Amino acid sequence: MWESINTTWLALRDLDEVALRARGLREFLDWVKDRSHLFRGVSHGTTLHNDAFHFLRLGTFLERADSTARLLDTKYQALAGMDARPRARPTTPGAQFCARPALSAPITRPTTTSLPRLGLPSYSPSVLKCRAACVFCANQVVEHLDSLAGTRDLEAQRLAGELHAHLRFARIDCVLCQGLHDFLVGVTRRLNDLSTQLAQDFLMTV
User: What is the pTM for the complete model shown?
Assistant: First the structure.
């Protein structure tokens, strides 16, 4: 783990603006992803699954949920200029394939536009995947937090459970009435409140 971080730091230290421009942004970002995958693979596959591991994973999924919500908000605002509400569109085989893991029922054209249990409008398969990613992250936060809490009953556990339920069971009509932007801002605020509570529950012991 230390070697993967240190090697990455040394490479970044020697990377100036000229070298970055010559390398190209896309290649640089692919390299960043590769280094991230390397560290995650080493940490997940070699460390003991003790408190340190659960804290590492907890931070990972909190950050991932926050980033996914912000990315989805940006994508939605770009699409909102074309149409403020979801429209019935032909369901392509690709969209059906991407949406199928998120739904238990067969994919039909009305299902793809209404999605009462998804809680987010399905402007594209990427939106479905973003929603599924947020729910998965919230579920992982709950599981790792439960492992850290042990027999204690922590306020952070309650906030994590509320976040998971809020994401999993939000209905499309309520989200559209509130506005997707406001809904996602609310998600990021819940994540921030949870992070603050985690510090109070685990770090501020005096």
Answer: 0.70
